[in-house]
Amino acid sequence: MMLEKVCIKKVITPVEIAKVQHLNAEIWGSQAIPSHQLLAAVQNGGLLLGAYLEGRLIGFNYCFVGYQEGEMYLHSHMIGVEKTYREQGVGELLKHAQQEYAKENGFQLVRWVFDPLETRMANLSFLKLNAVSYQYKTDYYGPLQDDFNDGLPSDRLAVEWWIERKHVDDCLDEFAESAEEIVSWSMTVDGLPVLDKDGEFQRDQVFIREAYLLAIPQYLQKMKVESPKLAEDWRYKVRTILTTLFEQEYAIVRVKKHKEYVNFYLLVRRSLLAL
């Protein structure tokens, strides 16, 4: 697919919104947002963007205005792309259209949440959009039964995207090169990655380096099918490690690609960032 052929536009009419809701249901099943709620949102300050290929809807991004601690921002609640067109840049196009909308309407900040074990959203958030995260939300939505979320607590990273602020300096590559792994990872006999098999991580440990790396699995959904207990093990270990590092004033600023089995979060001291 040629991205040049993809058109991003606002979705406004009930007919267009019904098509978004249909795609939403294809992706998330029973967790899909009803059409009437989407319509009410876009008629009252929300934004619904559609990605169209030759006139056919293949992706969408839904957000609304948020307010917290005296700051107005856009909250990007949901982004979805038809399975055939995933990992081809459609999500990034939608986010950049969202960025332009934010600029035109005076927003400096866009926020969203995503599963910290989902590599696709991690790459989009930190590698392509230069977002940052230093808040961990444990079981954020409660139990979810859709295909993406069923079987694990709905933990989320809270992401901040300051659309016109450079939060990291030119030393990012140096941080990535000098960072050491917080805990090790290895492979099971079934060819799946396992984190901290020997229990190296200590919750009361004081971290002193400028930057650290934390492995995340490359294919969470595959792991959930082949080894649900291992996927659960990753959930609880990553939860413990990230909440500990966030409490000690670290932030995720990048994804460092590694091998077929894992990627790494790059965590840097917040005092070194322009946040």
Automatic annotation (TrEMBL):
<protein>
    <recommendedName>
        <fullName>N-acetyltransferase domain-containing protein</fullName>
    </recommendedName>
</protein>
<feature type="domain" description="N-acetyltransferase">
    <location>
        <begin position="7"/>
        <end position="166"/>
    </location>
</feature>
<dbReference type="GO" id="GO:0016747">
    <property type="term" value="F:acyltransferase activity, transferring groups other than amino-acyl groups"/>
</dbReference>
<dbReference type="InterPro" id="IPR038764">
    <property type="entry name" value="GNAT_N_AcTrfase_prd"/>
</dbReference>
<dbReference type="Pfam" id="PF00583">
    <property type="entry name" value="Acetyltransf_1"/>
</dbReference>
<dbReference type="InterPro" id="IPR016181">
    <property type="entry name" value="Acyl_CoA_acyltransferase"/>
</dbReference>
<dbReference type="InterPro" id="IPR000182">
    <property type="entry name" value="GNAT_dom"/>
</dbReference>
